[in-house]
Structures are given as structure tokens and as C-alpha cells.
Amino acid sequence: QVQLAESGGGLVQAGDSLRLSCVASELTFSLYAMAWFRQAPGTEREFVAGITRSGEETYYADSVKGRFAISRDNAKNTIYLQMNSLNAEDTAVYYCAADFRPMQRGLATEEYKYRYWGQGTRVSLSS
């Protein structure tokens, strides 16, 4: 059974940094594009960042460009999201997602194209 397990969330102050991790199991990790989505209270889930199978290409939502960085380690079946300069708008539950793309290049930003999802990790900014 495929599992994606996120970790690294927490309560931080504006301007702080956090690093999220997502470990995947029971799948051929290198065949999957991976992404982070987030869902803030009262809003729909949105794409945050994505990385291609090889890690050569990354994509970011405009709201996080220059502050967040996604990376992956295929040997460890893990992706990361380094989040810097956090602000109140970053408060959300962050989800890791996997999109099976054995032949296609690039990655998708649409939620429905991702086959597997983690349970999420919460990031909160203290006031």
C-alpha cells in the first residue's frame, strides 16, 4: 500500500523558516513527479511547488517564488520543502502528492492529476 508521510510542520513566527519532508513508500519513486499543495482554513487546496521525476525541473506558485525551494532525494524516496521568510498567508496544512509519470516530462499543477496523497502537516504562524 502506497504511503506518503509528511513531517516538519509546526508553529513559527513571521520571518522564520521551516523544512518539510515527505517520505514515500511502496512505489517506484523515480517514476513519480512530486508536489506540495496546501490548504488554508476556509479555502480550497492549492498547488505550492512541484519537482519532476529526475529533480531537474521545479515549479512554484507565484506566492512562494523566491521563498520556498522544493528538492528530492530519489535514493531516500523523499522530497523536501524549504520554506523561508514565512508569513501569515503561509498558514495551512501542507500535503505531499505523487503523480505517476513514467513517460511524460514535466509535471502537473492540477490537484486531480495526483494519484497519491499524504495526510498533511500543519504550518501555523503565531500572531
Describe the structure in brief.
The protein has no helices and 11 strands.
Overview of the molecule:
The structure is a single chain. With 127 residues, this protein is mainly beta. Strands 2, 4, 5, 6, 9, 10 and 11 form a seven-stranded mixed beta sheet that branches. The chain has a four-stranded antiparallel beta sheet with strand order 1-3-8-7, with no helix packed on it. A hairpin with a 4-residue loop joins strand 7 and strand 8.
Task: Measure the end-to-end span.
Answer: 40 Å
Task: Describe the global form.
Answer: globular
Write the element-wise H/E pattern from the N-terminal end onward. EEEEEEEEEEE
For the residues shown, what is the average pLDDT?
A: 95
**Rg from alpha-carbon coordinates:** 14 Å
Strand residue percentage: over 45%
**Biggest sheet character:** 7 strands, mixed
List the helices and strands and how they pair.
Blueprint: E1 3-7, E2 10-12, E3 18-25, E4 32-39, E5 46-51, E6 58-60, E7 68-73, E8 78-83, E9 92-100, E10 116-117, E11 121-125
Parallel strand pairs: 2-11
Antiparallel strand pairs: 1-3, 3-8, 4-5, 4-9, 5-6, 7-8, 9-10, 9-11
Identify the notable features of this structure and list them briefly.
127 residues; mainly beta; four-stranded antiparallel β-sheet
